[in-house]
Design a protein that fits this description.
single chain, alpha+beta, Uridine Diphospho-n-acetylenolpyruvylglucosamine Reductase, domain 3, Enolase-like, domain 1, 2 domains, five-stranded antiparallel sheet
Amino acid sequence: MSFGKYYTPLSVEEAIDILNEYEGKARVVAGGTDLFIEDTANTKIDAMVDISMIKELRFISKEDRLIRIGALSTHTDIADSDTIKNECHFLSKAASAVGSVQIRNVGTVGGNIVNAQPAADTALALLALNPCITIVSEKGKRNMLMSDSYRLNGGSLIDPTREILLDIAFKSMDHHFENGAFMRLGKRKAMVLPVLNSSAYMRLNKDKSSIEDVRIVMAPCSRIPLRLRNTENYLINGGHSEDIFIEASKLAMDDANPRNSCFRGSSSYRKHLVGVMVFRILNQVLNNIVNEVLPFNGTN
């Protein structure tokens, strides 16, 4: 990647003004942990707009039941946040699984989302929470579901040459009836691409006899994080017995179509693992609800 000028604006307004000045020929950078290792040798832009100094974009807050995370919050910020640990422990677990300590200290959740890699750990866990994101450009602010920000053929609908992701917002969970989980399968425990990773959210009815809502996200099984819609539809308004979860895992295998990979394994092997992981993660979420699991303690 070649570029001319390098800007470090101190406010969102200043950053937007710079992007407008370059009319699509400047690009936003935050932590840069993904951007600077991309295969972009032939990419020519006129300027980089480093937004990492904009303090207003780095925060984690909770007001009533709404949790908001600023786009410049790092994976370490999320992993270490007491608010995240207490309200959605599995997001803390996912953030702590990203790369190395050095990467987690610099890489941002906003970059994780805009870069739109299908198996990005923090983004994958967020998708199970069904968050809304706020984006700003010269035209003003717009809100959209994070799940709608992915292009079907890969990549993001957020334009880093004209737009800035501001924050991510989602409702906290009532741990009497709802919870979630994150799982990651790799060849070793750290600094390796996942063979598969998954996140899930589940809400039970008041007597905990049936599933009112469920979201299951799996990656990398397609060009974007894959919502297992058929599996979810099968589970909603049904019970949560072992037999039901086994059937759900079979449906998940039908939904997923992972490609052959010399790093992650064959398509058939990973397709089988999808079923195994879905069965395990559904049981984990159910266990978290039954036991009202709150803070991430390194095991749940």
